[in-house]
Amino acid sequence: MRLMLAPMEGVIDHTMRELLTSLGGVDRCVTEFVRVSAQLLPARVFRRYCPELAHGGATSSGVPVYLQLLGGQPTVMADNAARAAELGAPGIDLNFGCPARTVNRSDGGAVILREPERVHAIATAVRAAVPADVPVTVKTRLGYDDRDRFLDIVRAVAAAGASELTVHARTRRHGYRPPAYWEEIARAREICKLPLIANGEIWSPGDALRCREVARCEDLMLGRGVLCRPDLPRLVKAAAAGAHPAPLTWHQVLPLVRRFYDLNLSHYEAHYAPNPLKQWLVYLRGYYLEAAPLFERIKRLRDPQAVSLELRHAAADTSAATGLSMTA
Ligand SMILES: Cc1cc2nc3c(=O)[nH]c(=O)nc-3n(C[C@H](O)[C@H](O)[C@H](O)COP(=O)(O)O)c2cc1C
């Protein structure tokens, strides 16, 4: 089984990829979407979204990072895909799932699912522009308003010669509301041989095993669940092998939180570093109750030093409470 870390704009950037892939279990990442409208983007844009390009297109743990493009014009998408490949992207992923109104209004993301012919045209043009040894993958939802054309979309992607298709098992209209309709992915499995990756609403190892069964999919993509439980990929792989190791405790997660903050301090301007940290704590508190008071303490802090101090206090408090020594 393979597990992919989902692309999440504004949330899973290269520092988050660096941290999460260091914990094991992730086989591939995808960047946040790079918006392609009318022109060939300069190399610096690709390098900003994917600093891993400077290191062979992989995180320090060796996990490849595919570069995701979003746009509606086949030729410009193809030109940008070729440039990304030239810059060393190990794979190109095409986003046909983004539900954002602004994106959809300017002819990108899920709105293209209304016309499977365009999905086909874009994927075909990109496939032709990128060297044969660089995979072109596609990420889609089940449709825009409804699922009526889902199988046409799948056929379009397969006919374009894409290597894999990730299906976020909801329409654009469903937004992010549960449930995810994993059973639709099993329908796609019946009509084509294209490797499929199931995505949506996997929050626990149990969800992952159920999703694999219902979607009839070996491989999965995990998004918000990994932000709530950073060891989820490792736990899912263990569960698939019949093992059930103990999940990380808050005491073990806190050093990761501090490491993430340090990564942000070293990669971004210091005044920006508290923002991704606050955002991650909002996800973490969905699983770790202890993340909530820490978030409350830092949510209004802007001074990076003050945030560092709170993180040190939290580590000291947790150590005192558990009787363990600080590990980071
Ligand atoms: C804040 C946020 C940002 C996202 N950004 C992207 C993106 O840039 N590209 C993309 O293909 N999907 C994006 N997605 C969709 C996720 O990749 C994934 O398909 C979705 O969250 C369902 O998976 P999950 O239930 O495991 O989170 C985003 C989702 C969220 C919540």
Strand residue percentage: 5-15%
The counted number of beta strands is 9
- Mean pLDDT reading: 95
Briefly note the CATH topology name of the largest domain.
TIM Barrel
Task: Name the shape in a single word.
Answer: globular
Domain module tally: 2
List cofactors, ions and other ligands: flavin mononucleotide
Spell the H/E element sequence: EHEEHEHEHHEHEHEHEHHHHHH
Biggest sheet character: 8 strands, parallel, barrel
First and last CA, distance: 32 Å
How is the largest sheet built, in terms of strand order?
1-2-4-5-6-7-8-9
Write out the CATH superfamily name of the largest domain.
Answer: Aldolase class I
In short:
The protein is α/β, with parallel strands linked by helices. It is built from 14 helices and 9 strands. The longest helix is centred in the last third of the chain and has 19 residues.
Describe this structure in words.
With 328 residues, this protein is of the alpha/beta class. It is 45% helix and 11% strand. It contains 14 helices and 9 strands. Strands 1-2-4-5-6-7-8-9 form an 8-stranded parallel beta barrel, surrounded by 5 helices. β4 (65-70), α3 and β5 form a beta-alpha-beta unit. The radius of gyration is 20 Å and the shape is globular. The mean pLDDT is 95. Flavin mononucleotide (FMN) is lined by residues 6-9, 11, 32-33, 68, 95, 97-98, 139, 168, 176, 199-202, 222-225.
